[in-house]
Design brief:
two-stranded antiparallel ribbon; single chain; 6 helices; mainly alpha; 4 strands; 196 residues
């Protein structure tokens, strides 16, 4: 189908093939989801603790990232599909995120709480609870969101004490394009009006 607009913020009416059946690897969030899912499967079914000493932590980390992508899908997409599967509703995506983040919480508790790599978060458990609270809130389950948010330690006693970052470093292939095309580079790519 024809593209609407050009440049960095171009929109195409053709949905990308996230399942990579055409030889093109998934990109962005879907790449992170596929990597996390595949890593979790290998850690769970193939690799032993002797082979991967921090196996329990890596199981939890991969579940956190996988669950975060499902939550993102539910919050931003009207519907979606994974790995050539059936089309899912927002409710199904939120449910998948909840199940995956619950698995992450159980895995962190089994491993013992730990800091996430690269200073992303001082507590994997707090991060998993925070993500599940956000997912529940977006799904409209306010009671579950409140219950999980209250489990994030340090927040009520000292506001803004807990941090978790989902950011990208500023390399050429991973930079935040809207920021670098705007405030940082002093350049903005403006598109014409979309007239359907």
């Amino acid at each position: 189908s024809p593209s609407i607009g050009t440049g960095v913020f171009a929109y195409s009416a053709t949905a990308p093939d996230f399942a990579a059946t055409n030889g093109t690897p998934p990109v962005g969030f879907m790449s992170a989801r596929k990597f996390a899912k595949d890593l979790h499967d290998k850690l769970d079914k193939t690799w032993t603790v002797a082979q991967v000493p921090k196996r329990a932590q890596y199981l939890a980390i991969s579940s956190i990232y996988e669950g975060a992508v499902y939550a993102w899908m539910g919050a931003t997409l009207c519907e979606g599909a994974l790995d050539n599967g059936k089309l899912m509703t927002q409710a199904e995506m939120y449910s998948l995120a909840d199940a995956t983040l619950t698995r992450a919480i159980n895995e962190v508790q089994a491993a013992g709480d730990f800091a996430m790599p690269f200073s992303i978060s001082t507590s994997a458990l707090n991060m998993a609870y925070g993500l599940r609270a956000q997912n529940s809130w977006m799904a409209g389950n306010i009671a579950a969101a409140k219950a999980d948010a209250e489990k994030v330690t340090g927040v009520t006693a000292t506001p803004n004490k807990f941090f978790a970052y989902f950011t990208r470093e500023a390399t050429a292939t991973r930079r935040n394009l809207p920021y670098y095309n705007g405030p940082e580079a002093k350049f903005a790519a403006l598109q014409g009006v979309v007239d359907w």
